[in-house]
């Protein structure tokens, strides 16, 4: 390993991560993190690596964990369709060492690569370094990262270069024993919410209460805990009353029915592409009979878009009930939608 290569590798980590690596390898001594600079920590780790105390495997694992824990890397979700031909492989696909050996064998039939697999939090994390002529296993810009939950029919992949897509997808189809690897319209930067959306597709929103065992243990009991909401003091005060109590209760009930009372999966963006006829002819009469299609693209973006939509509903800023493409986002396992007009029945 060359000095410049290893140096560039460690400089990709932030100071906190570098300090943690030093602590884990007993290189930081007893000084506090504030006593070190990022430059000093990286040089310390480079010297440690060049002295042979860091193997290439160790560096690959550090890179794999760094990519997996990062919150600014994009993940694409794929579905393993027609899965079943490889049922005899299931015991292999649960073991990281066997999984790595099998993946390495399948991929090397198509690509020059090196595979590193690690088991973490009941998931299999994989790093695949791909090269054409001169391999650079640490700083490869063509490295592919993958996450698979054993037993599930989905995988998460980082961006795959177009030149490798056909071969890489074919190798994965052989690996998992499926007929087709289909990319679904679900992307994001946080692994947890993406896994939650695809694994618990039928138990989101108000149905999450059953998955999380938040149901009434004794529904026949007459005793009920009083709801201590934020406005409980006002509601119990005989001198005050809410003029829009019925409206507020209706909004609260509809919002609870749509989203449930549990936190929503964290999606950073939701996109809608609409292709529809112009429907505001009463405001623009000259376009009332126009058959021309109106194209529109709408993007909701934020730290948690679903929570944002829920808050709009709770405060009465969004009309309810929401349209189905907004109401069922958390149960559709996707965050990109194409909306078109419904086809009219043909007149006889």
Quote the beta fraction.
15-25%
Helical content stands at 25-40%
N- to C-terminal distance: 76 Å
One letter per element, helices H and strands E, the order comes to HHHHEHEEEEHEHHHHEEHHHE
Short description:
The protein has 13 helices and nine strands.
Structure, described:
With 348 residues, the chain is of the alpha+beta class. It contains 13 helices and 9 strands. The chain folds into 3 domains: 3-54; 75-200, S-adenosylmethionine decarboxylase (4-Layer Sandwich), CATH 3.60.90; 206-212 and 245-340, Ubiquitin-like (UB roll) (Roll), CATH 3.10.20. Strand 4 (144-148) and strand 5 (154-157) form a beta hairpin. Helix 1 (3-10) crosses helix 3 (38-53), helix 2 packs parallel to helix 3 (38-53) and helix 5 (96-107) crosses helix 6 (162-176). It is globular and about 75 Å long. The N and C termini lie far apart (76 Å).
Topology:
Layout lengths: L2 H8 L4 H10 L13 H16 L2 H14 L5 E7 L14 H12 L4 E9 L2 E9 L12 E5 L5 E4 L4 H15 L3 E9 L2 H9 L8 H4 L20 H4 L9 H15 L9 E9 L15 E9 L3 H10 L9 H4 L1 H4 L3 E5 L8
Entry keywords:
348 residues; alpha+beta; S-adenosylmethionine decarboxylase; Ubiquitin-like (UB roll); 3 domains; six-stranded antiparallel sheet; three-stranded mixed sheet; 13 helices; 9 strands; 36% helix; 19% strand; globular; Centromere N-like; CENP-NAC/CAD_complex
């Amino acid at each position: 390993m060359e000095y410049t290569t290893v140096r560039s590798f460690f400089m990709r980590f932030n100071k906190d991560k570098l300090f943690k690596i030093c602590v884990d390898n007993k290189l930081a001594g007893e000084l506090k993190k504030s006593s070190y600079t990022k430059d000093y920590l990286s040089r310390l780790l480079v010297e440690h690596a060049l002295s042979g105390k860091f193997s290439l495997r160790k560096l690959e694992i550090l890179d794999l964990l760094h990519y997996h824990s990062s919150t600014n890397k994009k993940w694409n979700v794929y579905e393993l369709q027609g899965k079943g031909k490889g049922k005899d492989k299931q015991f292999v696909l649960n073991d990281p060492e066997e999984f790595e050996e099998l993946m390495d064998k399948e991929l090397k039939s198509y690509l020059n690569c090196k595979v590193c697999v690690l088991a973490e939090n009941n998931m299999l994390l994989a790093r695949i370094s791909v090269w054409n002529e001169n391999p650079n296993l640490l700083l490869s810009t063509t490295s592919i990262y993958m996450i698979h939950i054993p037993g599930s029919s989905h995988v998460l992949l980082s961006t795959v270069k177009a030149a490798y897509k056909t071969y890489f997808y074919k190798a994965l189809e052989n690996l998992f024993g499926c007929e087709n690897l289909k990319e679904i319209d679900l992307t994001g930067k946080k692994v947890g919410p993406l896994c939650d959306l695809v694994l618990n597709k039928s138990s989101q929103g108000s149905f999450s209460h059953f998955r999380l065992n938040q149901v009434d243990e004794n529904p026949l009991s007459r005793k009920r805990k009083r709801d201590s909401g934020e406005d409980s003091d006002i509601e119990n005060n005989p001198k005050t009353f809410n003029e829009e109590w019925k409206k507020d209760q209706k909004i609260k009930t509809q919002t609870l029915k749509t989203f449930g009372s549990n936190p929503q999966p964290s999606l950073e963006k939701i996109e809608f592409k609409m292709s529809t006829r112009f429907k505001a002819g009463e405001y623009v009469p000259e376009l009332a009979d126009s058959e021309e299609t109106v194209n529109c693209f709408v993007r909701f973006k934020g730290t948690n878009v679903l929570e944002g939509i829920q808050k709009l509903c709770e405060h009465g800023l969004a009309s309810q009930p929401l349209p189905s493409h907004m109401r069922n986002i958390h149960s559709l396992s996707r965050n990109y939608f194409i909306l078109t007009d419904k086809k009219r029945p043909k007149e006889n």
